[in-house]
Design goal:
mainly beta
Length: about 120
């Protein structure tokens, strides 16, 4: 099993920034990739960004240039730096991990609310 603990969400004004953190524990050595997803009210959950053990990143096209995913392997933690935030970014943000051998298992965090509003 892999457990995920998220932090960093909150209320921010348009144009502001937030940094989300996701710390993994459990079978951390079997993790293949971690990522961030989000779900706004009335919408389906969508990809934000992912990063593999090899450092390969993937972003939603609409978020490139504003959001950056990174990792700290020593802390078993991934981050999502969000800049130039817009009201449309308001959503519950979820951390996930793909793990196992083969890496077919998924674990999800509890979600953290990000609200962008004046």
């Amino acid at each position: 099993q892999v457990q995920l603990v998220e932090s960093g969400g909150g209320l921010v004004q348009p144009g502001g920034s937030l940094r989300l953190s996701c710390a993994a524990s459990g079978s951390i050595f079997s993790i293949y990739a971690m990522g961030w997803y989000r779900q706004a009210p009335g919408k389906q959950r969508e990809l934000v960004a992912t990063i593999t053990n090899g450092g390969t990143t993937n972003y939603a096209d609409s978020l490139k240039g504003r959001f950056t995913i990174s990792r700290d392997n020593a802390k078993n933690t991934v981050y999502l730096q969000m800049n130039s935030l817009k009201p449309e970014d308001t959503a519950v943000y979820y951390c996930n991990a793909r793990y196992g051998s083969p890496p077919t298992f998924l674990s999800w965090g509890q979600g953290t609310q990000v609200t962008v509003s004046s």
